[in-house]
């Protein structure tokens, strides 16, 4: 196996039961265990806590569509230059939209993608919150409302953007490498 983190990566067989169950679920759903799971299993309690938060924000029905949440993930990850998250969530965006061109374009520069007014507003919000969080104002929320988002969707978008900024920093700081399988998904 190629190196997937700059830290030690525990063996699947020695991981605690909760981690092994999550790995088994990933294998059943995706056909592989994401390297981010393997790498973070070094500290299983904090990994499982992160996963519960991540799963609650990203992998459920909510006020945004799955495609919108993945769009935010790709914008944030591209801006942060997080290879792991840009690749893995680019694959998810391709799968949710059926549009490889959209996902690839958003990963580089969302302004060059063909987006709805609401998607463009979400991307602009994600960019500002990621790059210049100290410059956020109430007007930013008005812009989202004008694009058709309600307060529930705005809160969810903000939480998703925050989650990906944190996850990008962990993944980049520790050299997480995306699984090869992600490069082919949704193409």
UniProtKB/TrEMBL annotation:
Protein name: Peroxidase
Presence of the UniProt keyword Repeat in the record: no
Residues annotated as domain Carboxymuconolactone decarboxylase-like: 47-96
Keyword line: Oxidoreductase, Peroxidase
Molecular function terms, GO-annotated: peroxiredoxin activity
Superkingdom assignment: Bacteria
């Amino acid at each position: 196996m190629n190196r997937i983190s700059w830290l030690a990566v525990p063996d699947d067989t020695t991981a605690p039961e909760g981690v092994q169950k999550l790995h088994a679920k990933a294998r059943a759903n995706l056909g592989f265990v994401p390297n981010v799971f393997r790498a973070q299993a070094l500290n299983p309690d904090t990994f499982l806590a992160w996963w519960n938060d991540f799963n609650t924000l990203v992998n459920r029905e909510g006020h945004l569509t799955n495609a919108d949440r993945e769009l935010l993930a790709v914008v944030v990850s591209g801006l942060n230059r997080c290879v792991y998250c840009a690749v893995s969530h680019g694959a998810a965006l391709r799968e949710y939209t059926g549009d490889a061109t959209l996902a690839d374009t958003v990963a580089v520069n969302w302004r060059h993608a063909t987006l709805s007014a609401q998607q463009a507003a979400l991307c602009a919000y994600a960019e500002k919150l990621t790059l210049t969080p100290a410059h956020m104002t109430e007007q930013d929320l008005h812009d989202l409302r004008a694009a058709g988002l309600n307060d529930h969707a705005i809160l969810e978008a903000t939480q998703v953007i925050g989650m990906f900024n944190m996850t990008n920093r962990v993944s980049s700081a520790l050299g997480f490498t995306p699984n090869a399988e992600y490069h082919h998904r949704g193409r």
